[in-house]
Amino acid sequence: MPARLAGVHPPLPEDAREITSVRFDTAEAVHAESDDLSHGRAVEPQSLSLETSCDTTAPSLFPERGLVLGTFAERVDGVAVTGFGVMAEDGTFTALSPAPEDAGSEGPADHLHPVADPERDRIVFVSETGESEDVVRALDLESGEFTDLGTCDTQQMCEHLTVMPGLDRAAIDDGQSTPMAVVLDGSTVVQNNDLGLSFFDIGDQADNDVVDLTLNFLNRDRTTEVDVDASGTVRALDANTLLFDDEVLSVLEFTETTLEGYEEENSTTPRNLWEPLPVDRTLSPDGDGVNSHVVPSPDGGEVLFRNEPQSGPASWYKVPTDGSGAPEELSEMPGSVSTVISWR
Questions:
Q1: Are 91 and 146 in contact (CB under 8 A)?
Q2: What confidence score (pLDDT) does residue 4 get?
């Protein structure tokens, strides 16, 4: 399936930027070894797809390299085997999963659910073993080396392997709940739900190379609940700042002391009587339509978002997250672009 990816490039000077759109189309793929990834190989696949994961939030793009992940099926000794690779902007598709001839006496395995981890320049994926536990592995894009990270079983839902900004390890979520954000220097994940914010301390998994974020596994005894005067999915701008994708793009700053104080203050108060924490600022004027597709810049200093007014066409805007300026319309970026995948 084709995919159109838009990227934002903010070179100097500060008010200059370049909006680019890249189309990756499997129908136009050229199967060959990559000039940049010498450890890759050409394949003759039965099928090729750019849908790589059941977890729709799992990253699939390497912005700096101009590569997008893909999965394929090839026939090995009469058996269909699933692997993964990357497609370049020129249409070259290179297989990167372990070659079938390297499988040994156990025969070729399926290598599934690849996830891009551009911060560490690697791909994390699952190798099926045929046993009760599969292996979570990582491929270093530069060296071509494979590393075993841990295992996952059917209770952990290996197909929901992911990586998250702020977390230096791979993770598995349940694929059904509201997306989480990593805060407090990687020690905590936070989720916004119908009752407010839930902060889950994951310090008990500090030694795990694969963090289990399924709600059945998270330690409820290490959870802090907070009501907040905002709504929508949360994203971490930094270790102590959350952005909500509500109608006004609310921003909440907090520390561990903030959470402890709120919990102590409400320890004897029924949950429905808790006073919500006020947000520190809002980035978008109220009543100007619906905001969506919020994408923070890598340093958290700016946010891109798409605004669809009650009447008229949608537009894209950029706004500083410190509240120092009003949203600026990106007139050169068509409102018809439905998704920005990444800044680069």
A1: no
A2: 44
CA–CA distance, 191 with 88 (Å, rounded to integer): 34
pLDDT of residue 30: 84
Nearest to 180 by CA among 230, 118, 242: 242
Residue 105 is predicted with a pLDDT of 60
Question: Tokens 């071509």 correspond to what residue?
Answer: 144
Q: Give residue 311's pLDDT.
A: 83
Q: What is the mean pLDDT of each run of 10 residues along the chain (344 residues)?
A: 47 47 74 84 88 63 88 88 92 91 73 92 93 92 95 76 90 77 93 88 89 78 88 93 93 95 93 93 82 87 89 89 93 74 68
pLDDT (0 to 100) of residue 179: 82
What's residue 291's pLDDT? 86
- What are the CA-CA distances from residue 167 to residues 22, 185, 236, 238 (Å)? 28, 8, 11, 12
- What is d(CA 191, CA 165) in angstroms, rounded to the nearest whole number? 14
Domain ranges of the chain: 23-163
Distance CA 243, CA 239 (A): 12
Identify the pLDDT of residue 40: 92
Q: Which residues are within 8 A (CB) of 257 and not within 5 positions of it... i.e. 6 or more apart?
A: none
Query: Cα Rg for the chain, rounded, in angstroms?
Result: 22
